[in-house]
Amino acid sequence: MKIRKCVIPAAGLGTRLLPASKAVPKEMLPVVDTPVLELIVKEAVDSGIEEILIITGRDKSAIENHFDNNIELEDHLLKKNDHINLDKIDKIVNMARIFYTRQNKPLGLGHAILCAKEFIGNEPFAILLGDDIMRAKKPVTKQLIDCFNTYNAPVLGVQEVDESDINKYGIIDYEKIEEDTFFVNDMIEKPKLENAPSNKAILGRYVLTPEIFDILENQKPGVGGEIQLTDAIRNLLDIQKVYAYQFEGKRYDTGSKIGYLKAIVEFALVREDLSEEFEQYLKALLK
Predict the structure, then answer these.
(1) How many CB atoms lie within 10 A of CB 135?
(2) Burial class, 163, CB count within 10 angstroms (exposed 0-12 / middle 13-18 / buried 19+)
(3) pLDDT digits (tens, 9 = 90+) for 209-239
(4) What backbone phi and psi angles, to 5 degrees, belong to 229?
(5) Which end of the chain has fewer CB within 10 Å, C or N?
(6) Peptide bond preceding 30: is omega within 30 degrees of 0, i.e. cis?
(7) CA dist., res. 193 & res. 186, Å (int)
(8) Which helix (H) or strand (E) holds 181?
């Protein structure tokens, strides 16, 4: 079955980026001149996704405004004959069919995904976390979709992380199937280093089947008193095979200050209109 839909959870408070995220949703902070969330939506579209559900929260209206028409701005650009920016805005509005629902209470990632149950229906679907942007030759979500089509089973996007970061992520216990593909035996959400089964962490991209919703409806709170998606996927192992795919590409955690800064610098350095001048600036700064 073709994967047509995806869910982007974007309801978090963004406390790691305060005070900037007090008035501006962290997902709308710009990487050079493009909001984080727009980069994530573009990845979904480039992966063949047709319908997107963004899970929002209170004070997130800027997200909906960004992907909607702005008649005054468009009229202003038209009068200035600024067709370059007019085309940019038009592309944003017409990227995909985007829908919204609100997570009324901050009960965790698992609860946010559960809010998508009616939207997804009985289809497999992708999840792209609203904090994580990827830079890859082939869109990371497309890499996972291709793996799903091969094994017809849920797929988790993973990469190896440093030992000091293991307690930040869901960590998998696995058996190697192919060079970048693994059968998942078990997983632990944010384990201590001594309890971690490996250093392969689930990093912001998933392809799941609708069976996950029945599990999430009965899932008890886990780490942090929240309903954890990792715990629900662990229970999914009892009824389905689950695979992990070590994706090609670089992931940036834009919910953290360092991750956000790295994304800005590295995205700027690959921009044809900015790279040369910006690189010269950085070299001069380092001197």
Answers:
(1) 15
(2) exposed
(3) 999 999 999 888 877 778 889 899 999 999 9
(4) -65, -40
(5) C
(6) no
(7) 16
(8) strand 181-189
Q: Residue 132 phi/psi, 5° resolution?
A: -105, 120
Scanning the chain, the segments in alpha helix (DSSP H) are: 36-46, 61-66, 71-79, 83-93, 109-114, 117-120, 140-151, 211-217, 229-236, 257-269, 275-286
Q: Is the pLDDT of residue 242 over 80?
A: yes
Give CA angle at 273 (38, 97), nearest 5°: 20
Does this model's pTM top 0.85?
A: yes
Tokens of residue 192, six digits: 């201590």
Q: Which residues pair with 203 in a beta bridge?
A: none
The DSSP letter of residue 190 is S
23-66 confidence digits (pLDDT tens): 889 999 999 999 999 999 999 999 999 999 999 988 788 999 99
Q: Tell me the helix, strand and coil percentages in the chain, rounded to 5.
A: 40, 25, 35
Instruction: Kindly report the number of other CB atoms within 10 A of residue 228's CB atom.
Output: 23
Contact 204, 131 (CB under 8 A): yes
| Listed range (108-112, 143-147, 180-184) with the worst mean pLDDT | 108-112
Dig out the tokens for 82 from the structure: 């600024």
Residue 20: other Cβ atoms inside 10 A: 12
- Tell me which amino acid residue 114 is: L
What gap in Å lies between CA 154 and CA 148, rounded to an integer? 6
